[in-house]
Amino acid sequence: MARMRKKLGAVLVSAAALSLTLSACGGGGGAEGGGGGGGGEAIDTSTASGEVSYWLWDANQLPAYQACADKFKAANPNVSVKITQYGWDDYWAKLTNGFIAGDAPDVFTDHLAKYPEFVTQQQLVALDETLAKDGYNVDQYQPGLADLWKGQDGKRYGLPKDFDTVAIFYNKKLVSDGGVKEADLQNLQWNPQDGGTYEKMIAHLTVDESGKRGDEPGFDKSKIKVYGLGLDGGSGGGLGQTQWSMYTGSNNWQFTDKNPWGTHYNYDQPAFQQTIGWFKSLIDKGYMPSVEATTGQGSSDIFAAGKYAMITNGSWQTNAFFDLKGIEVGLAPTPVGPSGKRASMYNGLADSIWIGAKNKPGAAKWVEFLGSPDCQNIVGEQAVVFPAIPEATEKAEAAWKAKGVDTNAFTVQVKDKTTFLFPITDYASQIEGIMEPAMDNVLTGKAPPESLTEANNQVNQLFG
Amino acid sequence: MSTGAIETVEPVVPSDFKPGAVRGTDKPPGRSEIGIALIFILPALIGFLVFYLYPFIRGFYFSLTRYNLLGTPTFIGFDNFTRLFQDPLFWNAILVTVEYVVINIVLQTILAVAIAVLMHRLTQSTVVRGLILLPFLISNVIAAMLWFWMLDYQIGLVNEFIAFLGLDRIAFFGDSAWAIPTIAIVNVWRHMGYTALLVFAGLQTIPNYVYEAAAVDGSTEWKSFWRITMPLLRPVLALVLVITVTGSFQVFDTVAVTTRGGPGNASRVIQYYIYQKGFTEGQFGYASALCVILFIILATVAVIQLRMLRAGESDLA
Amino acid sequence: MATTTAPSRDLAATEPEPARKRINLGRLGAWIAMIILILITLFPFYWMLRTAFSTTKSLFSEPASLLPVDFTTGAFQRVLGLATPAEAVAEGGSGAAVNFWLYLRNSVVFATLATAGQVFFCALAAYAFARLRWPGRDIVFFLFLTALMIPPIFTMLPNFILIKNLGLINTFPGLILPYFLMTPFAIFFLRQFFLGISREIEEAAKLDGAGHWRIFFRIVLPMSTAPIVTLFILTFINMWNEYFWPLLVGGGENVRVLTLAIGIFRSQTPQGSPDWAGLMAAVLVAALPILILFFAFAKKVVNSIGFSGLK
By the CB < 8 Å criterion, does C311 face chain B? Predict the structure, then answer.
């Protein structure tokens, strides 16, 4: 009955991965390889002609990429690019179905969380030979980005497109209401024992319904009007990109033994569990909303309602925050931790070629164009994301400055080299399936941070 | 005519008037109409075989394999099933789903019958009918998004109103005790008009003289409802219950849009768990095994319902 | 036939008797209950309307306001494809184009054809299950019924691959095919109603020499107008709201249906916020055709008293 089908799911609304992964018990059968396999013989881009299909999900970037496509066509009259956009929720479903049914696009925007699984499934074309043949400069990107896209076999499966980091967004009015100067927010320090100046600031900016601040006597933590620090939608699962990774990352802790392609997770280490314990204490003290309270609308919406003085969030949300009418927003970099430095997770997107692409020469030429300054500068000027090429990044910063947005809080992490990589390992979806409920339970108080050791064991068992 | 007691209403009708279904009792045996029947059901049969039976058999085959959708399936016999029975998340899913179904169905059925009777008795207005059906016009997903916003803890209208009254806000979707009931109620909101319409169509089949006869005997509205309406609604109620219970067990959209199985595993209903295992984690063989179990549960429940409600008969017979 | 002319009290489903001196408390209570139910049902729609006339970017600055926030008709312009990308982005929408009238046409074609086929073929089958006698009838019926319980992930993928192999991706036939011939719900529904038809009339027709075809078309169908119209409306609504299948099979502009287009207003990025004003406007506009359809046929949903054909 039609109702049944609807119930499955139009909506795969979920930030969780939609990609496929090998089952825990090891390899299935032979993967579908299209012609040439992942071995990557060089594709001859000089023969490029015809139409190349390209998919992306962010409609906000559509105009920029259309402009890129037009420029590409002008430079290569034989090749045209057809761009299709599917919203984030549908994108991975369509892509996966495309892989299975054999009609995936030639080129598509790839995500660090999904690509390891695509590599294992042998759905991506290795680009090394082609790039070498064309004398392509793979070092033109922000340091570290290009290597993220090298698989375990050392081959390159995507060319970097853009990157993102996290920072603190703050509500200028709420901050000044607390008698705090914006400059005070730029160099906060935190530690898992007493939270440092960071926690003091958060406490001071928290206001309860009778007007008392978090550091004043008589503060009622059960009736909060404004939270000093917001929580971006949930516990963060095993990654906590916008929730807590900036703290664990500045507490001398790493997700895995090595990155990329580690095989052992470290959720059992005291540095991690203490940080999470401290993070939870912010909820207990009333300075931060609980996971229950933030199961609902996005953090930018709640921020818009004036409920958060500060919140940590990613650079891809910059426009969502700054475009809010009626709120003046500022940016500050993440606080410095016990390691003596601040930290931010470093994530990035790339463009990959599907192994079954019908127009590989055209696809390769398009990918090379996408990874070049010609295209990335256009994207940068639109001020939607930070492109991967430093020159284009600066263009983006300038474009944002022209709109009145100072993005230094994001780029300082790259300049100071205080970023750490998004963890790239096999079994990403299953790890998330274990860690999300486990972290939920810790942050809702149902289990102590030590319970994460058990979760960690389950995760490490996946690797055998 | 009537015997004066409301218990047995004996309308004066032609002797073989049987508005309810009859299970093969009045036609002389031996006259099978299979030829013509085949022609009548042929298109539906083709649809069934191609779009339902074949995929099901294929799915059943996958439940005996390890398969990640991109490679080839590896036959592993019943391993998926033994794994399933030892999987605490499977049992959690069953528990959570049953809780959901009970709350959803009880509430929805009561409300739907109440609305249908009200529509039947109070007003013939099509405007009212249309208004009641309105929630069904928006898709599951949009309805879920809408309620996810209105019930939001911090900025949802409902909670702002609750806070205005001086009470504590409720984390409708975030609190593990509230998550399933909230999802159930959201779906009741969406489906009660639709279910009411089905029941209403059934109410139409009850002839008026039955009520009139009861009225003559002094029955009140309330009594007539329980003694006449409900029993005579049986075939339609059976339809409604089988459909709604089956659909309810397969709840997915609302969970996918709102809680995504959380907090913790409090709303990880079986269909969501299947989807998570099959598509997100690429364990399609295991997910298929879960589907087979779900199917067996649903079929069993349906059989029980149909038997208990004697869906093939009607008290008018 | 009852010859008593019992005073038709509230039990008869006719107009309430006017000018009754005694106010019926029960009736009053019933009306109050009805009104409360209607209010609860309708309030979210008011909320949708209020949001549709607000500006997305300002929406949450007044989260509990019952009036539109920063009133604008921009959302409707976006939905109807009348706004330029720049205007759209200025209000908080995305810059993607919405070819509204085309999608509307596609939805109408898809929903109408799928529903018409489904209702017709299922009526045929339901007749066979309800009125004809043949060995294994009830078993086959139960089999059809179990199709309700087949999990969608079993059917989605194979059906998708089948349509692809037939070369029908991005075509209307491909979209319609799985729904065109049967759904278990439609068969179940109609069979239950066909069961209630009196045998007398059928027998009479048979005596007159009518074959099953004639009985079906001339007698059973006309007598079942109410359930058939009800089924038509409900199925149409379901087809109108179908999302996942058209997403898989009908992504091309020429067959893209309204529900997919609504996807443009949903969140574009992970954990982002949807273009609420645009989304609500889109949903309201998409629901309008169904409402019109419903009110056009609503009277038929009510059966006349002569249902059983005996009175």
Answer: yes
3-state secondary structure of A197: helix
Phi, psi angles (nearest 5°) of residue A281: -65, -30
Contact with chain B for residue C303, Cβ under 8 A: yes
DSSP type of residue A46: G
Q: How far is CA B176 from the centre of its chain?
A: 24
CA angle C172, B43, C117 (to 5 degrees): 40
Our measurement of the distance from residue B23's CA atom to the centroid of its chain's CA atoms, rounded to an integer in Å, reads 25
CA–centroid distance for A187 within its chain? 24
Nearest Cα neighbor of A406 from A229, A182, A194 is: A182
Tokens of C145: 């019924």
State whether B275 and A8 contact (CB < 8 Å).
yes
pLDDT in tens, A349-405: 999 999 999 999 999 999 999 999 999 999 999 998 999 999 999 999 999 999 999
Mark A385-417 as b/e (b = at least 16 C-beta within 10 Å): bbbbbbebbebbbebbeeeebebbbbbbbbeee
**Distance, CA of A295 to CA of C217 (rounded, Å):** 54
A319/B103 Cα distance (integer angstroms): 42
This prediction's pTM? 0.85
Global ipTM: 0.83
Strand A308-314 and strand A166-171: pairing?
Answer: antiparallel
Tell me which residue has tokens 């790039």: A131
pLDDT of residue B199: 87
Output the CA angle A122-A125-A126, nearest 5 degrees: 105
Q: CB contacts < 8 Å between B and C, how many? A: 316
CA distances from B205 to B89, B209, C67, C217, C224 (A): 45, 12, 44, 20, 10
Q: Which of residues 113-142 of B touch A (CB under 8 A)?
A: 139-141
C-beta atoms of C41 and B132 within 8 A? yes
Q: Which residues contact C267 (CB under 8 A, 6 or more apart)?
A: A13, A87, A88, A89, A298, C273, C274
Residues 6+ apart with CB under 8 A from C213: none
Decide if A444 contacts B264 (C-beta within 8 A): yes
pLDDT score recorded for residue B129 = 77
Instruction: Say if residues A273 and A210 touch (Cβ distance below 8 Å).
Output: no
Kindly indicate the confidence band of residue A222, based on its pLDDT and cuts at 50, 70 and 90: confident
A167 - beta bridge partners?
A313
Give the model confidence (pLDDT) of C75-108 as tens digits.
Answer: 888 888 787 777 777 777 766 667 888 899 999 9
In this prediction, residue B274 has a pLDDT band, given cuts at 50, 70 and 90, of: very high
| B129 in contact with chain C, both atoms CB, cutoff 8 A | yes
Q: Which two tokens stand for residue B234?
A: 């049986």
Please report the pLDDT score of residue C15 as a whole number.
46
Helix (H) or strand (E) holding A109: strand A107-111
Strand partners, A421: A346
Among chain B residues, CA nearest to C51? B146
Question: What SS3 class is residue A87?
Answer: coil
Contact status, residue B193 vs residue B132, Cβ threshold 8 Å: yes
Question: What is the number of helices (H) and of strands (E) in chain A?
Answer: 18, 12
CA C130 to the chain's CA centroid? 25
Inter-CA distances, A237 with A234, A242, A244, A314, C72, Å: 8, 11, 10, 16, 39
Helix (H, G, I), strand (E, B) or coil at A153: coil
- Tokens 């990308």 correspond to C85
**3-state SS class at C256:** coil
Residue A313 has pLDDT above 60, yes or no: yes
Nearest-CB residue to C269 (from A3, A94, A316) = A316
Sort out which chain A residues have CB atoms less than 8 A from C157's CB and list them.
97, 100
Token pair 């939870």: residue: A280
Residue with tokens 């083709």: B46
Q: What is the pLDDT of residues B200-215, one digit of tens each?
A: 878 877 777 888 888 8
